[in-house]
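Quick start: read one record
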Amino acid sequence: MVLLFDVDHTLVDINKFKKDKSKIFGITPEENEAQGNELFKNKGLNYHPETHIKFLRGSGLIKTDAQEEKIKKDLQNLIKNIDDYLFPGVEETLKYLKQKGYRMILITKGDLSIQKPKVENSIIKEYFDEIIYEENDKSQNGFIKKLAKSGEQVLIINDRAEQSLAMQKALGNKAKIFLVKGPYSQDTDHKEDIHESVNELKNIL
Protein backbone atom coordinates (compact mmCIF):
# COMPACT_ATOMS: atom_id res chain seq x y z
CA MET A 1 0.00 0.00 0.00
CA VAL A 2 1.11 3.54 -0.78
CA LEU A 3 0.61 6.18 1.90
CA LEU A 4 0.22 9.60 0.31
CA PHE A 5 0.83 12.35 2.87
CA ASP A 6 0.07 16.06 2.80
CA VAL A 7 2.16 18.53 4.87
CA ASP A 8 0.38 21.68 6.07
CA HIS A 9 -2.35 21.11 8.69
CA THR A 10 -1.68 17.37 8.36
CA LEU A 11 1.86 16.98 9.69
CA VAL A 12 2.73 20.60 10.42
CA ASP A 13 0.73 22.97 12.64
CA ILE A 14 0.74 25.71 10.04
CA ASN A 15 -1.56 27.94 12.10
CA LYS A 16 1.07 28.10 14.83
CA PHE A 17 3.74 28.70 12.18
CA LYS A 18 1.70 31.57 10.66
CA LYS A 19 1.23 33.13 14.10
CA ASP A 20 4.99 33.29 14.64
CA LYS A 21 5.51 34.48 11.06
CA SER A 22 3.08 37.32 11.77
CA LYS A 23 5.23 38.42 14.71
CA ILE A 24 8.27 38.53 12.43
CA PHE A 25 6.36 40.62 9.89
CA GLY A 26 5.15 42.98 12.61
CA ILE A 27 1.46 42.35 12.00
CA THR A 28 -1.33 40.54 13.82
CA PRO A 29 -2.44 37.03 12.80
CA GLU A 30 -5.70 38.59 11.60
CA GLU A 31 -3.82 41.07 9.42
CA ASN A 32 -1.66 38.25 8.10
CA GLU A 33 -4.76 36.25 7.15
CA ALA A 34 -6.44 39.25 5.50
CA GLN A 35 -3.33 40.14 3.52
CA GLY A 36 -2.85 36.53 2.50
CA ASN A 37 -6.40 36.43 1.17
CA GLU A 38 -6.03 39.74 -0.66
CA LEU A 39 -2.64 39.04 -2.22
CA PHE A 40 -2.91 35.33 -2.93
CA LYS A 41 -5.95 33.23 -2.02
CA ASN A 42 -8.59 35.45 -3.64
CA LYS A 43 -6.51 35.52 -6.82
CA GLY A 44 -5.96 31.77 -6.88
CA LEU A 45 -2.24 32.21 -6.21
CA ASN A 46 0.10 30.31 -3.92
CA TYR A 47 1.53 32.18 -0.98
CA HIS A 48 4.91 33.75 -1.76
CA PRO A 49 6.82 35.39 1.12
CA GLU A 50 8.80 37.78 -1.10
CA THR A 51 5.57 39.17 -2.55
CA HIS A 52 4.14 39.60 0.95
CA ILE A 53 7.27 41.42 2.12
CA LYS A 54 7.12 43.73 -0.92
CA PHE A 55 3.52 44.52 -0.03
CA LEU A 56 4.51 45.40 3.54
CA ARG A 57 7.33 47.59 2.24
CA GLY A 58 4.99 49.35 -0.18
CA SER A 59 2.45 49.86 2.58
CA GLY A 60 5.03 51.52 4.80
CA LEU A 61 4.89 48.75 7.40
CA ILE A 62 8.50 47.94 6.56
CA LYS A 63 10.35 51.25 6.52
CA THR A 64 14.03 50.50 5.94
CA ASP A 65 16.30 48.10 4.07
CA ALA A 66 17.74 46.95 7.37
CA GLN A 67 14.28 46.12 8.70
CA GLU A 68 13.47 44.19 5.53
CA GLU A 69 16.71 42.20 5.70
CA LYS A 70 16.07 41.32 9.35
CA ILE A 71 12.58 40.08 8.50
CA LYS A 72 13.97 37.89 5.70
CA LYS A 73 16.66 36.48 7.98
CA ASP A 74 14.20 35.81 10.79
CA LEU A 75 11.85 34.09 8.33
CA GLN A 76 14.68 31.84 7.15
CA ASN A 77 15.42 30.92 10.76
CA LEU A 78 11.74 30.20 11.35
CA ILE A 79 11.70 27.77 8.43
CA LYS A 80 14.94 26.16 9.60
CA ASN A 81 13.17 25.36 12.86
CA ILE A 82 10.08 23.91 11.15
CA ASP A 83 10.26 20.79 13.34
CA ASP A 84 9.12 22.97 16.23
CA TYR A 85 5.76 23.08 14.43
CA LEU A 86 5.23 19.37 13.85
CA PHE A 87 2.06 18.13 15.50
CA PRO A 88 2.77 15.99 18.61
CA GLY A 89 3.56 12.38 17.78
CA VAL A 90 4.05 12.94 14.03
CA GLU A 91 7.63 11.69 13.86
CA GLU A 92 6.84 8.61 15.94
CA THR A 93 3.87 7.80 13.68
CA LEU A 94 5.93 8.20 10.50
CA LYS A 95 8.67 6.02 11.96
CA TYR A 96 6.12 3.34 12.90
CA LEU A 97 4.60 3.31 9.41
CA LYS A 98 8.01 3.23 7.75
CA GLN A 99 9.04 0.25 9.87
CA LYS A 100 5.82 -1.52 8.84
CA GLY A 101 7.07 -1.40 5.26
CA TYR A 102 4.58 0.98 3.68
CA ARG A 103 5.65 2.98 0.66
CA MET A 104 5.65 6.56 1.94
CA ILE A 105 5.09 9.50 -0.40
CA LEU A 106 4.93 13.17 0.54
CA ILE A 107 3.09 15.49 -1.84
CA THR A 108 2.76 19.15 -0.98
CA LYS A 109 1.09 21.98 -2.85
CA GLY A 110 2.37 25.54 -2.75
CA ASP A 111 5.09 27.86 -3.93
CA LEU A 112 8.43 26.06 -4.07
CA SER A 113 10.17 29.01 -2.43
CA ILE A 114 8.55 28.14 0.90
CA GLN A 115 7.33 24.53 0.61
CA LYS A 116 10.67 23.05 -0.40
CA PRO A 117 12.69 24.69 2.43
CA LYS A 118 10.03 23.63 4.94
CA VAL A 119 10.37 19.98 3.93
CA GLU A 120 14.16 20.02 3.49
CA ASN A 121 14.65 21.49 6.96
CA SER A 122 12.41 18.92 8.62
CA ILE A 123 13.20 15.50 10.07
CA ILE A 124 10.09 14.15 8.31
CA LYS A 125 11.90 13.99 4.95
CA GLU A 126 13.86 10.97 6.21
CA TYR A 127 10.71 8.84 6.33
CA PHE A 128 9.54 9.31 2.75
CA ASP A 129 10.51 7.28 -0.31
CA GLU A 130 9.64 10.18 -2.57
CA ILE A 131 8.83 13.87 -2.11
CA ILE A 132 6.71 15.65 -4.69
CA TYR A 133 6.24 19.42 -4.96
CA GLU A 134 3.16 20.60 -6.83
CA GLU A 135 2.40 24.27 -7.45
CA ASN A 136 -1.02 23.76 -9.03
CA ASP A 137 -3.46 20.83 -8.81
CA LYS A 138 -2.30 17.75 -6.91
CA SER A 139 -4.83 15.55 -8.67
CA GLN A 140 -3.25 16.42 -12.03
CA ASN A 141 0.33 15.79 -10.93
CA GLY A 142 2.24 13.37 -13.13
CA PHE A 143 3.07 11.13 -10.20
CA ILE A 144 -0.63 10.78 -9.34
CA LYS A 145 -1.40 9.80 -12.94
CA LYS A 146 1.39 7.24 -12.88
CA LEU A 147 0.20 5.87 -9.55
CA ALA A 148 -3.34 5.53 -10.92
CA LYS A 149 -2.06 3.32 -13.74
CA SER A 150 -0.12 1.11 -11.31
CA GLY A 151 -3.31 -0.20 -9.68
CA GLU A 152 -1.71 -0.02 -6.24
CA GLN A 153 -3.81 0.57 -3.17
CA VAL A 154 -3.42 4.14 -1.94
CA LEU A 155 -4.35 5.87 1.29
CA ILE A 156 -4.63 9.66 0.94
CA ILE A 157 -3.72 11.33 4.24
CA ASN A 158 -4.77 14.96 4.04
CA ASP A 159 -6.70 17.68 5.86
CA ARG A 160 -8.43 19.08 2.77
CA ALA A 161 -11.65 17.30 1.86
CA GLU A 162 -12.12 18.74 -1.62
CA GLN A 163 -8.50 18.16 -2.58
CA SER A 164 -8.59 14.61 -1.21
CA LEU A 165 -11.73 13.74 -3.16
CA ALA A 166 -10.20 15.08 -6.37
CA MET A 167 -7.10 12.96 -5.81
CA GLN A 168 -9.23 9.92 -5.04
CA LYS A 169 -11.13 10.41 -8.29
CA ALA A 170 -7.86 10.69 -10.22
CA LEU A 171 -6.41 7.59 -8.54
CA GLY A 172 -9.42 5.35 -8.97
CA ASN A 173 -11.45 3.10 -6.68
CA LYS A 174 -8.40 1.56 -4.98
CA ALA A 175 -7.70 4.89 -3.28
CA LYS A 176 -9.09 5.57 0.18
CA ILE A 177 -9.06 8.75 2.25
CA PHE A 178 -7.86 9.35 5.80
CA LEU A 179 -9.11 12.87 6.47
CA VAL A 180 -7.37 14.82 9.23
CA LYS A 181 -9.25 17.46 11.18
CA GLY A 182 -8.31 20.97 10.11
CA PRO A 183 -9.66 24.25 8.72
CA TYR A 184 -10.40 22.63 5.34
CA SER A 185 -11.65 19.20 6.41
CA GLN A 186 -15.21 20.29 5.67
CA ASP A 187 -14.56 22.53 2.67
CA THR A 188 -16.97 20.42 0.61
CA ASP A 189 -19.74 17.89 1.28
CA HIS A 190 -18.42 14.39 1.97
CA LYS A 191 -19.08 11.21 3.92
CA GLU A 192 -15.54 10.61 5.15
CA ASP A 193 -14.71 10.21 8.82
CA ILE A 194 -12.63 13.06 10.22
CA HIS A 195 -9.68 12.03 12.40
CA GLU A 196 -8.11 14.13 15.14
CA SER A 197 -4.56 13.49 13.95
CA VAL A 198 -2.34 11.26 11.81
CA ASN A 199 -1.45 9.39 14.98
CA GLU A 200 -4.72 7.46 14.61
CA LEU A 201 -3.13 5.70 11.64
CA LYS A 202 -1.30 3.45 14.11
CA ASN A 203 -4.67 2.07 15.18
CA ILE A 204 -5.74 1.04 11.68
CA LEU A 205 -2.52 0.14 9.84
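The mean pLDDT is 96.
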